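Please predict the structure of the following assembly.
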Amino acid sequence: MPQQLAIIVLVDIANALEMKTLEGNTYLFDNMKLHGSEGEGTGELVTAIHGSYWRDGSQATEQVLNWLPYSLGSIPPTVPRGYEAERARQTDRQALTELESMVAKPGSQGTPEATLTQIQQTIGTRVKTTKRTRGPAGQKVLDVTGNVISYDGAAAHSYPPPVITDVYGEAVDKKIMYPAEYGSPDMVTDGWYWSATVDSTRPGTYTYTMAIQLHRLLLQGGDWMWEPVDLTCDSKLRITSEPKRNAFTKSGLGLLPIPPA
Amino acid sequence: MAVKPQVSIIALVDVIGALSSRSLLDGNLVMIDDGSFASRAQGTPELCTIVQPGQVVQWTALAVDLQTPVEIKNIEFLRLQPAGQPAYPAPAPMGHPSAALPPTGPPSPAAAPYATGPGAYPPGPSGPAGVLAAPTTESEKLDLEIWAGVVPYYMAPGVAYRYRMEFQMYEGPYSVLYVETPSLMRI
């Protein structure tokens, strides 16, 4: 059938990082409850896929799946693409202004120590980027409302959204689906998304695994950096297949049921 | 130009728009065909497809947003009226058109009258486009249906044979919408 199927992978990032597992910290949804998908909103989603075949047994429809990772504990994915970098620049400018006014009018805003602490708060905590860490570059630690925070190792902060890095497992090995990562103009998916076409001619339940990369803040050599953490999450496809039929005759092609004039 | 053996009619539905306004009008439904002759009102729900006996006509519903569900629930040709009466009758108040569907699901309470109460738009069964009563549970099998048939020879040339086309968009009490404006006409 022509409708595309979306599978939402919602991750509770803080808990997943703490427990070092996606089990119990992932909530899966798809848009095919109508077709009998089960376990919506849990980690045990079984996605129902209706296949169909022609009289000669050949495949009549092809299902397209799209995976979208969502995050619990991040700033919304709908903010503009350069939001984090823009916030970082803005707070740098603001800190410079504060510094300027401190130098120009010493003592006007309390003791120099208090003013410096204030400026430190404004600057927040920059996250160091290395060649090895693929995480978000040139950014600062934000809270979930999008404000720069001065991170002390314990404060609540926003995480980079989860990234699907692979889709594999039984359904792929058995050539039930053919997943690949595609470039996309859609900002919500950060410019990339995983998609697959499904061979709906072989009914059955097939498992697959998503490799999902999260990032945690790690203090290394006096700098905070986003360290990638790779975890996996399983789900299932349940494929059924039925013959196509003519809707007017319920069998083969016939005359249109037009009442005589 | 040789006459094509098959005419495809595509009904392109803005599912979210249609469900939000409970209407297939206002641009929520666009119908287009690829017939060999000069079909009229292309791109509107008033599409009049010019056909020739023996041709196969096939209807397909497509969603503007590919992640929204839409299927053709039923296509029923309306009866022409004798002279002096309105050209087309109101849909029969009883006898759900989908009652003829094969028994693929449990017997449905929705083999029921057209919605005429609250929620039906336009009120009453006489409008050109409206909402039907709760759909049957057969909706999940609609993707197996091929809406195709051969143009019969007994059609009178130059007469627009209007049909009611019903669309199922997901499920629930307002999930079925229809139009009675498209037609076939023999050249």
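Chain A has a mean pLDDT of 87. The radius of gyration of chain A is 26 Å.
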